[in-house]
């Protein structure tokens, strides 16, 4: 991850997708289809994060692995925000200034874990500085896309690195926002 300057928020999406670009078959699909190598990478990135932002459905599926992390859970079921415990804060991004909330909590490294609506919200707001995308060698044929922004938006990223994660063919792509690219990537 790029160096984070003091008082600057740094957002990075972390996702695993199928060969046909799906993050899940449906909103209740478990993440048991991703490789051990992907899970190891995910946990390493989360360990380096100050907070994880996740959608309510994704949180319900991944609650146990996220239980000891600072989590902001996006939901439309409340008007503004509601704290469940010291680690879990539910917010409606339509009713809360998310960037200001993160600054007030003194968070700097923000991991965005999805699902589709959460990834799309951050893309639409032009907040994603980096995207870590594991491509797993599996095809769903249909399902939830990584992004689904209406109306469509175009944001440019540059490939910073490619890493083969295992012998089965899972690969990790690391992209950086074009405006945030170091000179050697431009």
Please characterize this protein's 3D structure.
- The two termini are 17 Å apart.
- The chain has a single domain (10-172), classed as Dihydrofolate Reductase, subunit A.
- The model has no long low-confidence stretch (mean pLDDT 92).
- A 9-stranded mixed β-sheet has the order 5-6-4-3-7-1-8-11-10, sandwiched between helices. A two-stranded antiparallel ribbon has the order 2-9.
- The chain has helices at residues 36-47, 56-66, 98-104, 116-124; strands at residues 10-17, 22-24, 51-55, 71-74, 81-83, 88-91, 109-112, 128-135, 144-145, 157-164, 171-177.
- The protein is built from 4 helices and 11 strands, in the order E-E-H-E-H-E-E-E-H-E-H-E-E-E-E.
Structure summary:
The chain has 186 residues and is of the alpha/beta class. The protein has a single domain (10-172), classed as Dihydrofolate Reductase, subunit A (3-Layer(aba) Sandwich), CATH 3.40.430.
Describe the SSE topology.
Layout: E1 10-17, E2 22-24, H1 36-47, E3 51-55, H2 56-66, E4 71-74, E5 81-83, E6 88-91, H3 98-104, E7 109-112, H4 116-124, E8 128-135, E9 144-145, E10 157-164, E11 171-177
Parallel strand pairs: 1-7, 1-8, 3-4, 3-7, 4-6
Antiparallel strand pairs: 2-9, 5-6, 8-11, 10-11
Record keyword descriptors for this entry.
186 residues, alpha/beta, Dihydrofolate Reductase, subunit A, 9-stranded mixed sheet, two-stranded antiparallel ribbon, 4 helices, 11 strands, 21% helix, globular
